[in-house]
Specification:
Length: 653
Amino acid sequence: MKGDHFGGRNEAGTSEEAEEAEGDGAIKKMCGIVGYLGSGSAVPVLVSELRSLEYRGYDSAGLAVIEQGNLRILKAAGKLANLETILKEKSPIAQVGIGHTRWATHGEPNDTNAHPHTDESKVVAVVHNGIIENYRELKNELLDKGINFSSDTDTEVVAHLVSYYYGQTKDMLKAVRKAVTRLKGIYALAILSPEYPDRIFAVNHHYSLTVGLGENESFLASDGLAVRPYTNQLLRLEQSEIVELTSSGYKLYSFDGEEVKRAPITSEGNLYVIDKGGYKHFLLKEINEQPTVLRQTLAKYLPDVQKPVNLKKERTDLVNSLHTAGITLTKEQIKNIDRIQIVACGTAFYSGMVGKYILESLAQIPTDIEIASEIRGRKLLSNERTLTIAVSQSGETADTLAAIKEAKENGSHTLGITNRADSHLAHITTDLITTECGIEVSVAATKTYIAQLASFYLLGIYLAEEKGLLPPEKAAQLKHELYLIPTWQEKILATSEDIRQAALKYCSAKDVVFMGRGFNYPTALEGALKLKELSYIHASGYAAGELKHGPIAVLDENVPVVTILVPGVVYDKSLSNALEAKARQAKMIAVAVEDDDKVNGIFETVMRIPVVDEFLSPLLTVLPLQLFAYYAAEALGKDVDQPRNLAKSVTVE
Ligand code: M6R
């Protein structure tokens, strides 16, 4: 049910940070905040919380603790392991501390710029997620007061500002409040002070912070999953709130100083265990989890389909289960929808492209798909007759959130498809489909893509049924076929060794072209994205019919071309496009169904999938491409789970 944000398989709290400083030496980063205070030893808890968030930011990590009344700060550029090495040598004894893991795209991700940051007299230590838009102005003001800065970050402004106001008020809560009224932007902060050795002050302003309450100990994290191993009593901070946290509880305030009374929520969800489960990488584990993910998503929304005896009942089951799970659209509202608009970024955008084909084909509603960042700077045209769907595994992507907010303001009916029932996206959309993936740790999206596709199939069937466009027998058949897909995916996964061999053969290429038509044009785009982001090999995806309109110029005997060929109306044309590539001596690779003999003699490598119709084929065709990208990256010695320059959720614009 929508609103039950702590109850599903997804855990409380959200995501990481984005910080953007303008101009020269600009820094953008997406990071994680943690905190602990209680009777236990703070450092191991902080490190374990940071470990849960490290997959979201891995350029540097740091801690601030209070040891024997003094502030101690330890930080290290690089992965958390570097900080842990330092801690092995000199681990502080402390019962209170805050920590941070950082991700930077510009500027040196060095020790100096790592969080926490302090003021000159070390009255406060600050870790920060978000954007202080007016940091230059504030920095100049503080410099004029004779205050010296030691890093390039905007975070340091916060430390000096809080310290300055503390000097005036001698009251940390007041100082924090005064400081936040000066800050522009969106941010989350955790503040530690040796003057208040028994508490942590934390601020959330349009970001994410979750407090966890245990027995005589309290926790803090920018993503609830870091806190959840310790307690199921969770309090998510709302948009502009300050929390004063002690080991025995908390006080919550609005920015204007009013105390806010809000009780924690008991998280009923399962605990996420973040481990590789015997796989070499999270990515390989997540690719292999896709049949399970699909089964779980289908089991949630189509509980009875494995025994399709009563067609009428099945129809009711999907309608009911989607309604129970978060769809409020009534039959009347569906009739009134004259346009669907999908907004998303990256891999979620490609799932939305498949979604467009599915919705137009099943529900017969014209559907547009927009890259969310392309909506910036222009007006999003939508109205109360539009269904706007935002797709985002994290539910925290800044551009996607901005687009869906604009759609909402325009009066659109909004629907979120996300893997995080506790995300911003889930909070702001009227309707919600939560995908059943568990946490996706690897930065590259794989299983969430499959689950997003499944959501579009279910949504398409649902809308078509409600509009009376899908005869019960056809609907039942479709649902039944969906249930066959996980087994077929398992068959593809069983050919991993063949795909690994193919990846080894082509991984020295400098450029790889992927092409497909119709339902598999987005698959080509996703295949290219996976290869690029994992192996750093340049790759492009094309609508196969577009090849001759330009991209064919890049083809020669050094360029592998991957064609997706699935039985259906575009098969012959796709094969013709492949032959155009062959005529340019390209290295020919196909993703094709098992009984396709036409490919023999044309392609030097064929990655086989079970026989499937083009309509459901995107649920299969992407798997060989994911594995191909994984094995190519692995062969090239790349960091497949944490590729360079990427972050798991992109909270900058
Ligand atoms: O969290 P979101 O689904 O909104 O993220 C969108 C993109 O940032 C994401 O899909 C990105 O392209 C991944 N690196 C793809 O593997």
